[in-house]
Design brief:
One of its GO terms (biological process) is L-proline biosynthetic process. It is an enzyme of class 1 (oxidoreductase). It contains twelve helices and seven strands. The chain is α/β, with parallel strands linked by helices. The mean pLDDT is 94.
Length: 258
């Protein structure tokens, strides 16, 4: 990548993007007057705003949503702008940016911090290749056909880590209820979720049309323990609850964006 990249806001999300780009030997600069001293030590921050802007051909906004418009209105020239600020739509980004700027809105999720994220993006198609180059090493990147679908991305992968963590905690509590210690149960739960995910990813590499149900059926013997457990899940409306969680989080994302 020949263009230099400036990251505004170098907390958890911005810091992870910064570190990834630096590891790839890209020209990356950081600016964050609010970053704690401990995190500053790991990131080479620019102290002069105007100098930072001169050096940065591409800007990544990783700040709180209420700071986005103020920052964009302070720019003195057009830029390529990638925003990971939650809930700020492309219309707002364009209106606040200098004329001639190009914008893309990105909805990432927390596992991006460990290079295993999932995100959706929408905006100027001319920047889509750039989004892939910057983010694909640390995240699965999904181009959505219309901006409203970023609310669905928010409800599924944006909020999804919380659902997965709740499931892991519930598995661990289930282990405790049948005699295991919490530490034992949590380790088993984590490895079960991690191992199953890795196994299904391998299945999909061999056959992209592989379905979760097919792998699930390989664990489920007639009259066995797994089918008994699955029956209990469905008695508690497990599938319905997960689908409802995604739908409600999507609706809430739309409400917050109004």
């Amino acid at each position: 990548m020949s263009e230099s990249i400036g990251i505004i806001g170098c907390g958890n999300m911005g810091g992870a993007i910064y570190n990834s780009l630096q590891e790839r030997k890209e020209k990356v600069f950081g600016y964050d007057p609010y970053l704690s001293q401990s995190k500053q030590a790991k990131i080479d921050l620019e102290s002069d705003w105007n100098e930072f802007l001169k050096k940065s051909e591409i800007l990544i906004l990783a700040v709180k949503p209420n700071e986005v418009s103020k920052i964009l209105k302070s720019l003195n020239s057009s830029k390529k702008i990638l925003s990971v600020a939650a809930g700020i739509d492309t219309h707002t980004l364009r209106n606040a940016s200098p004329p001639g700027s190009q914008v893309v809105r990105i909805m990432p999720n927390l596992p991006l911090l460990v290079g295993a994220g999932a995100l959706g993006y929408f905006g100027e198609k001319e920047l889509y290749e750039l989004v892939q180059k910057i983010f694909s090493p640390i995240s699965y990147c999904l181009e959505v056909s219309k901006e409203e679908l970023l609310d669905a991305v928010t409800g599924l992968s944006g909020s999804g880590p919380a659902y997965v963590l709740k499931f892991i905690q519930s598995l661990a509590e289930g282990g405790v209820s049948v005699g295991l210690t919490y530490a034992q149960s949590l380790e088993l739960s984590l490895q079960t979720v991690l191992g199953t995910t890795k196994l299904f990813l391998r299945e999909r590499e061999a056959n992209p049309d592989s379905h979760p149900e097919a792998l699930k059926n390989r664990v489920t013997s007639p009259g066995g323990t797994t089918i008994a457990g699955l029956e209990a899940l469905e008695q508690g409306a497990f599938s319905h609850s997960v689908i409802s969680a995604v739908k409600r989080a999507t609706e809430r994302s739309k409400e917050l964006g109004r």
